[in-house]
Amino acid sequence: MRVISAYLLAVLGGKEKPTAADINAILGSVGVEAEADKVSKLISELEGKDLEELIAEGSKKLATVPSGGGGGGGGGGAAAGGGAAAAAPEPEPEPEEEE
């Protein structure tokens, strides 16, 4: 995922065809060491392909994936009653002042 992100950042930065050195420089700038095999595989997979077309194609594929969840699980049961609730203590009446 990091390698793909670095590739996309390079494209957004103006590089039409990012190289392994570009990707390594981007990842190195944030302290991440890229795995050379993953970088070379990504570059070879994307060689000669338009990135915007790939993104549009992937979006179409994602649109066909059902995303609705199953029926709701229903609400949880109410807490078990532990008897009557404790009654709030009644305030003591204040003595009336006589004049």
Automatic annotation (TrEMBL):
This is 60S acidic ribosomal protein P2. Residues 64-99 are annotated as: Disordered. Keywords: Ribonucleoprotein, Ribosomal protein. Residues 67-84 have a biased composition (Gly residues). One of its GO terms (molecular function) is structural constituent of ribosome. Belongs to the eukaryotic ribosomal protein P1/P2 family. The keyword Nucleotide-binding does not apply. It comes from the Eukaryota. PANTHER family: 60S ACIDIC RIBOSOMAL PROTEIN FAMILY MEMBER, LARGE RIBOSOMAL SUBUNIT PROTEIN P2. GO terms for cellular component: cytosolic large ribosomal subunit. One of its GO terms (biological process) is cytoplasmic translational elongation. It comes from Strombidium rassoulzadegani. InterPro entries: P1/P2_N_sf, Ribosomal_P1/P2, Ribosomal_P2. It holds the Pfam family Ribosomal_60s.
